[in-house]
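Sequence in, structure out.
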Amino acid sequence: MSKGVLLINLGSPDSTDPKDVKKYLDEFLMDPRVIDVPYWARTLLVRGIILNTRPKKSAEAYQKIWWDEGSPLIVISERLQNKVQENSDVPVGLAMRYGSMSIKKGLQQLVDQGVDEILLVPLYPQFAMATTETILVLAEELRKEYFPRVTFTNLPAFYNNSDYIEVLSKSINEKLVGLDYEHLLFSYHGVPERHIRKSDITKSHCKIDGSCCKTPSAAHQYCYRHQCYETTRLVAEKLNLKDDTYSTSFQSRLGFDPWLQPYTDRTIERMGKQGIKKMAIVTPAFVSDCLETLEEIAMEGEEIFHEVGGKEFTTIPCLNDRDDWAGLLADWIKNWVEQKTPLTTET
């Protein structure tokens, strides 16, 4: 068997042209694991309403954060891929769940190099229907249809891996050292509350209240909410943060159904109104800076904070292509190549 690795991130429009943004949003929002309603309802909502209004606004947002080299998410992911490849003895490919850098193309490129055993690496620390699950489901569909002789190993969620927590904590601490801040906000991408219940393998544990995420359960293996709060807890423990100096929130909600709370925008507004003048914010659901971090948080979030009296708003970068992060991925790959469990050390 010849081994290879496929790193998989979310994706991006090909450009900031509204037509390209519309094409991207159509693929993204029509995914039944992103908007999990019947096809007819999803089509009516996405193609009948959202795609008639949102692409122009989203294109303007992308224009604010677009780099000369292209989409920040794509450029950063390519830089990370190159660094991981430099430290790996097997081919390391890159693909996106949505957009032109498709998973099918990524798999084909590895197969063309003689690879028939692939480690799939969804670049999401926490498991969610709309991220890890949709990647793995699509990859398996493609394998059955186009690559039946290929076998997959899936890298599990790594939110509580001690080495990952070490790298994440170090990246945060580098920004906090010498920074006179009053509060550190951990902002994670939001999901509808129903996604949490749908992912509950026990069908009874998840109440989405203050207790279920703290009560041991098999449901936590696929509980995005638990894994987000656990990421925060482990980093806070590593950095010796005082209880009243940090909190967790959820951003990027869509539609009118209940999403995970508290909402990031309202949390930023509330803290400013309560008199907090200096805050820092980190986004550990993302490993690469993207529209949600560069525009929604670093621009819109800062604007909200200043409007309600806040003074200093510090955005902490994602892991991006940090050497220690690329090195950690390479270590996990090496473990897998040596027929060990990719994630060997957990907290």
